[in-house]
Each structure stands twice: as C-alpha cells, then as structure tokens.
Design brief:
By secondary structure, the chain is of the alpha+beta class. It has 10 helices and 4 strands; from the N terminus they run ααααββαααββααα. β3 and β4 form a beta hairpin. The N terminus is likely disordered.
Length: about 250
C-alpha cells in the first residue's frame, strides 16, 4: 500500500465524529464547569515535522488533486466518496480541527458524511433510552478507521503537515499550530468515558439530551462518540491512543 494513503484516516475519523452528530443531541442550558477541555500544548506531545523522504506538496489551493486519489484508493465507502466530491478538502479538515480541538462539533460542515438511518430511541415504563440497534450504523466507519496502521498515519501526517498547518492558520487560527490542535483533539476523544446500556435520554425541545447530568455535561464531541455504542467507542478509542502514541 502506498504510504501516502493513510492520510485519509484524518477524514475518516472526522466522518465518524461528525456522522454521530447529525441528529442534534443537546440541551439548552449553561455548560457545566467541567466542560472545558484540558489544555494541551505542542511541547507536551511534540510532533517531529521532519520526514525521511521529503515530498514536494502542491500549493494549498491545489491540494484537492493530490488528496483525492489517495483517499479514493483507501476506502470505497460512500460516505467518504460523497465528501471527496466537495472542494477545499484540506481547509475543511482544518476547520473541523479548529472546532474539534475546543470540543465543539463540526457537524454543520460535514453533513454529507452522515450515516444512513435515524437516531432511534426505545420506550420503557414511560422513560426513553437509546436503542442499541442504532449503534450498527457506525460499524463500517469504525472498522475502516481501525483497520489502518496508526503508525503509518503518524508518518504521513508529517508529510502533509505543512499544508494542513497552513490551512489551519488561514481558517480562523492565525499564529496557531496544527500539531497542538491534533493532540488536543485526540486527548478530548480518548477521554470520552465508558457508558453502559441502557442510556436514558429526555426530550429537550429541540432534540434529545442525556438524562444523566454527568453525561450531558461532557463536551459535544464526546457526547457524540457515546452515540456510536460501547463497542465501537472502545475500538475507536484504542486506535486513537495508538495514533497519539505514534505522534
């Protein structure tokens, strides 16, 4: 496999996160104090930007042509294909990172990768719970992500880093470093807690909210990952830890 192909994992991880956010899951209230993500600076988890074989990257505005064939060769999943049909792929990833590293959801910009089906609940004794059958919507995406060697992803990240960093700085993060954003995003996702079924939800007026205040006070991206189900979350989190260690 061409070593450049694993850069697609960035898009696929975002697809998993964003896909689980499409059916709005929020409560209109003031965020809890513990909803602020732990600050992580680049020096705490340094990423070496050097590569053994430097690659001549095209200008940022021409990166779509560089990325598309690599991503297409990695996965034939329709969600990814739909996203690849859009423009400014690297800027989209940079904007999503800018939201995700703050624990926010980039769902509005990635609706094209939403999984099929609807968020489903089941009712028992007048109470509502997440229907575990809905977790299967995310099986394919999680399988695609976790089947790729995380160390390869870390290596290729260093290849595309100059353009991704450029995109990150020009999409609302001037003077910032994409390395810190990547590590901070990984830490937020990895810190998503374990939750056992059944998971109770309540009507919030604009969707559903977790009945458990501790769960509802989690960051938006963490709450979205919970909606993939315990097994998918565990598999993805294990892979994300391997990626963080490789970085």
């Amino acid at each position: 496999m061409n070593d450049n192909k694993p850069i697609a994992i960035i898009a696929l991880v975002l697809a998993v996160i964003v896909g689980s956010a499409i059916w709005y899951f929020a409560r209109t209230r003031t965020p809890a104090a513990n909803a602020t993500p732990k600050a992580v600076v680049a020096t705490e988890a340094p990423i070496d930007a050097r590569t053994d074989k430097p690659v001549d990257l095209p200008p940022l505005d021409q990166m779509d042509a560089f990325l598309r064939p690599l991503l297409q060769a990695l996965s034939t999943r329709p969600e990814l294909a739909k996203w690849l049909a859009t423009d400014d792929l690297l800027r989209q990833l940079a904007m999503a990172l800018g939201q995700a590293d703050a624990g926010a959801s980039p769902a509005r910009d990635f609706k094209v990768v939403a999984p099929s089906g609807k968020f489903a609940v089941m009712r028992r004794g007048g109470r509502q719970f997440i229907d575990p059958a809905g977790y299967k919507r995310y099986d394919g995406l999680v399988e695609t992500v976790t089947s790729i060697d995380a160390s390869k992803v870390a290596s290729i990240y260093k290849t595309i880093r100059p353009r991704l960093n450029e995109a990150y700085q020009t999409t609302g993060n001037p003077g910032s470093n994409v390395d810190a954003a990547v590590i901070k995003t990984l830490d937020i996702l990895i810190d998503t807690p374990d939750v056992k079924d059944p998971v109770e939800v309540i009507d919030s007026g604009i969707g559903y909210a977790y009945a458990n205040d501790d769960l509802e006070s989690l960051l938006p991206t963490q709450k979205q990952l919970l909606r993939m189900g315990p097994e998918n979350l565990d598999r993805l989190r294990t892979w994300l830890k391997a990626l963080r260690d490789a970085l």
